[in-house]
Structures are given as structure tokens and as C-alpha cells.
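@here heads up, posting the sequence + SMILES for the pyridoxal-5'-phosphate run so it's all in one place. Ping me if the SMILES looks off, I pulled it from an old spreadsheet.
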Amino acid sequence: MKYIVDDVEVRAREELFINIHPIQPGGRLTPEAMKALIAYGDGYSTCDWCRKPFRLDKIQRPPIAEFHAELAGFLGMDEARVVPGARRGFQAVVSSVAGPGDSVVVSSLAHYTEFLAVEDAGAVVKEVPLNQSNTVTGENVAQKIEGVKRETGKLPKLIMIDHFDYMLGNEHDVRGVAKVAKEYGIPFLCNSAYSIGVMPVNGMEIGADILVGSGHKSFASPAPSGIVAATKEWADKVFRTTQMVGDVTGRRFGIKEIEMMGCTLMGANLIALMASFPTVRERVKRWPEEVEKINYFTKEFLKIQGNLILSEMPRRHTLTKVDTSRSFDKVAQVHKRRGFFLSDELRDRRIIGEFAGATRAWKLNTYGLTWDQIRYLAQSFQDIAGKYGVEVV
Ligand SMILES: *Cc1c(COP(=O)(O)O)cnc(C)c1O
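bot reply: prediction finished. Complex C-alpha cells:
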């Protein structure tokens, strides 16, 4: 083991193991992003050629302005900005449209950062119940809106629904939600943290007013990094510029965007995101094969008696929740290492990323694994089952 400094060890998990961590695979860096991190690591490195009107997204060298335009086009939206994580995107949007006493409609599978963004704005979340297949539909959103109207006398200020949720990786009816949002005249933020950057996503085609994505979740980028993209109408609101005037000096900073705090994602993180963009643009076209691979994996995984898939089937995302209560957990109950026996067995086979010690319900993500790695992964689970007398059919 080598150390960078003191007790900070070199991290080589992606080089040495097959990593099935639920949140890590889509953020794995490209070699270009790694180079960008080194070359642009110094603090205000992106400011070398910053000229009037002095705003990050206007810089021409390196071509940050051009990148912003391309990014908006790639997502089928009019304007895009980069932010430090999807969470900062939610925060910017919610605080632009909601305030104390307002309601924001979210999914019953909403990410905690959506809750926090709403709380930060002084508003309250109103959760849409799931249907029988654990998805959010336009119909259920409409019902929730009616409920909020009856209860508070006001319409919600924002609908924020996940394209794919983080708990099950299920796809939600975002097109149906967009239609309902339009009918009520409420803006719709499509949380695309698990979709932008791994699969083709077009905000216009979905009918979303705003898309928020994550650079470190799904865009082969370092943390923190994220994306907010909006239609012209909502860009004017979310990316509104400062009106403040200094009472002594009379100073104004006219072009700085309030929610972006003027300049947002500066330096290496932005340039790394840009450096990964050509790869990301190509890799989203290969999403159907990623889906094929997870469906091959689940088919093999289900041959282990007692195993269940808790996510919707067939899979439409590589993030998948499995239940091994009636297989590996049975082994864990009598094993001296308890649930850690599974982690030990996987690690012995150079597989990591499962929640250490978990043998009941847990998540895995096969994004980016090769067919060889997928077959090896499936075989490894079957081998472990066989070793402990769990039947494989
Ligand atoms: C990961 C995730 C987030 C948070 O993304 P950050 O970029 O880390 O802020 C938000 N929502 C969902 C659904 C996620 O999966």
C-alpha cells in the first residue's frame, strides 16, 4: 500500500477490482478528466483568460462558453449551467420558485437532497405515493396536486420527480408528469441524477422545464459537479441576475447570476467535466447494451434459489436492488463472520462495492462492466451460493 501523505492511502479500487457500488460507476473518470484534474488543479485556474463581462460561463479560453451551449443542446434544453452537484441544482431551482409556506411535490422515492433543498427554501415537501409497480405516474401527481390544493388552498410551486430513483433504479413516468405539470401551469424539474450522462436524455422531448443532473454520479466527473439545464422561460427565472446596489458605493454586479453566486463550478472540476464530455456523448448511445448486461446478470442471479430482484423487471437501469434474505442471509445467520462472509467471498474474487455486511436487501450497479466482467460477476455469486449449499438451478 502506498500513501499520498501520512495516512491517506492511494485509491486503486477501480484498477484492482470489479466495482459494483451503487453510486460510483457512472462517475468513474475518463483518462482525459484525470489529465484535466492535474493541469487545472490550481485554485482559480479557469480565470486565466477571463475577460469582460467576467462570468465563468462566458469564458472563451478554454472554451467554457462553447461547452455550455453544447451541453444545453445535448440535453435538449435552451440553457445550461454547471453547479457543485445535483443537490446545488435543486437548491438553485427551489429557492427561485418557492418560499416559506409553499409546497413542492416530490416522489415517495425522492433523494434526501431534494428534501433539504425544499427545507432550505422554507417550503414543505408533499410526497406522491407510488403505484403497485413502485413508480410515480402523472395520474398520481395530479391527485397529489389536488390534495395539496384542498389542504392549503394553493397550488404547489414546483414538481420535482426523479427520472430514475436512487432506491430501486425504477423509471418513472416523467412524460406523464410533464403533461400534468403543464395542465396546472406548475414548473417540472426532472431529477436526472441517474440518467443524464449514461443514457440519452432530451428534456424537450420529456416536456420538462428543468433538468438537473450529477457530474460525479453519471457524467464521468469529479465531485462535486452537477448540471442544471432549463427552457428559456425557466432559465430567465433560475439564472436571473443581481439587481443589488451598494448603498455607499453605488456598486452593481449586473451580469452575475444570484443562484450561481456569480461563478459556480470553477477550476479542475469544470474542465474535467468538459474533458469527459466527448466520451459521455458517445457512451450514452451504448445504453441499450448496458441494459442488456444487467438483464443478463439478473437472469443468472435469480437462478440462485431464494434470490429476488426488488427493482422493476425487466431492468431498465443498471442500478438494481436485490433481496438475498432467503439465500445469503440464511448463510450469514450461522456463519461466524455473519453478513461479512459475503463481502469476504466477493473480495476474494476481486469484487467490491456491495454494502459490507448486508445480506438482506442491498443495491448494486453494473454500469460500465464488460461482458466478461458481467459473466464473471454472475458466476461468482453462483459459486458462492454453491459453496454454502444454496441451490442454483
Ligand atoms: C445521487 C443523487 C442525487 C445527489 O446528487 P449530487 O450530485 O451528489 O448532489 C440526487 N438525486 C438522486 C436521485 C440521486 O441519485
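MO: The two ends are 41 Å apart (CA to CA).
MO: One more: The chain has two domains: 3-25+286-387, 45-265.
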